[in-house]
Amino acid sequence: MPEEEFTGQAVEVAQVSFKYNSLKALDGLSLQVPRGVSFGLLGPNGAGKTTLIRLLVGLLRPGAGTIRILGQRPSRKMAHLIGYMPQLHSLYAELSIIQNVDFFARIYRLTDKAERARRVEAAIRLVDMWTRRNDAVQKLSGGMKQRVSLACAIVHNPPLLFLDEPTVGLDPELRVTFWEHFAGLTKQGATLIISSHTMDDAVHCDYLAFMRDGKVIARGSPGDLKQATGRPEATLEDAFLHFVQRGQQNAI
Ligand SMILES: Nc1ncnc2c1ncn2[C@@H]1O[C@H](COP(=O)(O)OP(=O)(O)O)[C@@H](O)[C@H]1O
Ligand SMILES: [Mg+2]
């Protein structure tokens, strides 16, 4: 079946474990992400979010278990279907914004020059950096670098996006702007997997997986997860603590 016609889950992770030498970073983790949603991976530092995303984009291989994205095993062949914004940006400091985004567009096989120029401009405009397009990245603030990094991840209009802590260090206004971009992308049918350690981000996601110690301890919509505490006034922080105390539980 051509991958465009694949109608199953965007991401399927079954019983995945991963070790860095003797350190178990992921411990029998399972997860399904439906298509066309924003899905938050929420958990404290060290929970395994980055490791999971690196496995999903094919940079690491699982020690045990299986991973399918858009119905296939992650591989280089799928690069044009995936956008990846790493936790630490991977921009070229001496190059300008437009050169950076164009570089990623080439990696993602946008070979037609006119089409590539159009996409590069659209991506830079989307993150509102077009007026600074000829500035070297090293001249930009941290928040601006993050915006450029997002432009690099979305330039090829991928159906599946992995964003690793994209809102860290953003001021509140910029955070809102990012979430507006993300909502626009899912509206167009893209699937977004977004990691965060703050519940400020969690409220914006359609679905969440709470992660801790390399495991998913709960998953569901923000409403489902709050409701599972049995307290109407519960916040998502309360819900997270509830599941930490209860051990492994699913809200759905
Ligand atoms: N390259 C690495 N080498 C050794 N241990 C690592 C490496 N990357 C992460 N870890 C460890 O794996 C665990 C999960 O880390 P990580 O996936 O980065 O979590 P998160 O992104 O949720 O903060 C942590 O205990 C971390 O110290
Ligand atoms: Mg991380």
Report on this model:
With 252 residues, the chain is an alpha/beta fold. The chain has helices spanning 49-56, 97-107, 113-126, 142-154, 172-187, 199-202, 222-227, 236-246, and strands at 11-20, 23-33, 38-42, 64-69, 82-85, 160-164, 191-196, 207-212, 215-220. The protein has 2 domains: 6-70 and 159-252, Rossmann fold (3-Layer(aba) Sandwich); 90-158, no CATH class. A hairpin with a 2-residue loop joins strand 8 (207-212) and strand 9 (215-220). The model is unreliable at 1-7 (pLDDT under 50). Bound molecules: adenosine-5'-diphosphate (ADP) and magnesium ion (MG). Adenosine-5'-diphosphate binds at residues 20, 23, 25, 43, 45-51.
Keywords:
3-stranded antiparallel beta sheet; 9 strands; 8 helices; binds adenosine-5'-diphosphate; binds magnesium ion; disordered N terminus; 2 domains; alpha/beta; Rossmann fold; globular; 252 residues
Number of helices: 8
User: Low-confidence segments, ≥5 residues, pLDDT <50?
Assistant: 1-7
Ligand identities: adenosine-5'-diphosphate, magnesium ion
Mean pLDDT: 91
Q: Please identify, by name, the CATH architecture of the largest domain.
A: 3-Layer(aba) Sandwich
By oligomeric state, this entry counts as single chain
General shape: globular
Largest sheet: 6 strands, mixed
Q: Which sequence of SSEs, written as H and E, runs from N to C?
A: EEEHEEHHHEHEHEEHH
Radius of gyration: 18 Å
Q: Which strand order does the major sheet show? A: 5-6-7-3-8-9
- Count the domains: 2
